[in-house]
Design brief:
Length: 404
């Protein structure tokens, strides 16, 4: 295992070294966060979604980019820009490095939280868990791009831990902080609300409302009304910065990311919507087991995989959230039951960085990874139903029950 992980980390470090010049030029996605923070700092919050102003700000620190002719657009809600405002007191390269160091610290926090909930993982030192996470390609993609999905991973992990202690309101509050990636959080929140009821939904609404009020204070009503149109225009048109469906490792990308299909036709839109609803309904149907001390963690894992699959415009780095399902399954495998080891099989291709590099840079078909996500979700749902229908459960003191 360690030889494999070391090999993946070596590949990642080599790639980072190869693109160091592009990072210095401001090509990574971190540019959008730095730009948004800089605009807030300069009192330009009301123009946060102005392409013209974004371009002018980016020209101050990213003048030599040869891969774009317009601004790299900031698409997230206004309140997230506050997270990055302190980094704008540093020059861009130093801010990029500082953000990646913060992400390493966040990974340590995630490892500690997972070990507190998943007892079998306590046999693995925190630093080793962090190294293993750095071998996971979606985690690496955050360091390459300076993205924010590792921060979202921390928020989802905090919500997972709160639910593990039946603190539904707190879990909802934590998840509400993640609405800067609402395309992932809303499907997950819907599933968890169906399972955990009003207290969870109230917690989500509390922090979600606070985020809305902060956003309004930053950009005003005019900027807030401009945001949905601006965001939709960007993500729905590659010419404006949208990602081609073939590069989206999601259900939408899997169905529409082929040259013989037109993703904007009514038939494809209906197919994507129907398939996404079916996936969410399949996971919501696990409600009867979602409060089980034995199966609640498996249910949460399935909810995360489903949210990643049905999220709109899901990128590779967003799959960092899969660290929670991976932790749940690894915990169960380490606990010893042989009949659950098959849960890890569908995830194995997701752990192979050379495959990611081939699909990303060679074939430009990262949407193929959605096949393994669908397989993994199917296996998780089937396993939850199988275990849920057992009548020969051990006593509550059993190590199997504690560690599943």
């Amino acid at each position: 295992m360690w030889s494999f992980a070391s090999g993946m980390i070596t590949i990642h470090l080599f790639f980072l070294w190869q693109v160091r010049d592009r990072i210095a030029r401001g090509d990574p996605d971190f540019t959008v966060f730095y730009t948004a923070g800089k605009m807030l700092r300069q009192g330009q919050g009301t123009q946060l979604y102005s392409a013209r102003v974004q371009m002018a700000v980016q020209a101050e620190f990213a003048r030599n980019s040869d891969i774009r002719r317009g601004p790299l657009p900031y698409l997230h809600p206004p309140f997230e820009a506050l997270f990055f405002l302190p980094l704008t007191f540093l020059a861009y390269p130093q801010a990029f490095a500082a953000w990646n160091l913060i992400n390493v610290g966040i990974l340590f926090g995630v490892a500690v939280l997972l070990r507190q909930s998943l007892l079998s993982l306590q046999s693995v030192p925190v630093w080793q868990m962090v190294l293993l996470s750095l071998a996971f390609f979606p985690i690496f993609a955050n360091f390459h791009q300076g993205q924010d999905a590792i921060l979202l991973l921390l928020i989802v992990t905090l919500s997972f831990r709160a639910l593990d202690h039946d603190a539904e309101f707190l879990a909802g509050c934590w998840l509400g902080f993640g609405l800067f990636k609402y395309h992932l959080i809303l499907p997950l929140a819907f599933i968890l609300s169906c399972w955990r009821g009003r207290r969870f939904a109230l917690g989500l609404a509390t922090t979600g409302s606070a985020a809305v009020l902060v956003s309004l204070g930053l950009v005003g009503w005019k900027g807030a009304l401009q945001y949905p149109v601006y965001a939709w225009r960007v993500i729905s048109g590659p010419g404006f910065g949208g990602i081609p469906p073939r590069q989206l490792p999601s259900f939408f990308g899997l169905l529409t990311g082929w040259h013989w299909l037109q993703p904007n036709t009514l038939i494809m839109q209906v197919a994507v919507a129907a398939g996404s609803i079916a996936l969410v309904v399949a996971v919501v149907s696990l409600r009867r087991w979602s409060r089980s001390r034995v199966l609640s963690r498996f249910c949460f894992a399935a909810a995360v995989v489903a949210a990643v699959l049905v999220g709109y415009s899901v990128n590779t780095y967003d799959l960092s959230l899969l660290m929670v399902p991976l932790g749940v399954v690894a915990n169960c495998v380490l606990a010893g039951p042989r009949d659950v080891r098959g849960l890890l099989a569908p995830a194995i291709p997701l752990l192979i960085s050379p495959l990611w590099f081939f699909l990303w840079m060679g074939w430009q078909r990262t949407n193929v990874m959605a096949i393994f996500l669908l397989w993994w979700l199917f296996v998780l749902v089937a396993e939850i139903r199988r275990l849920g229908n057992r009548t020969d459960w051990p006593t509550p003191e059993s190590p199997v029950i504690v560690n599943v």
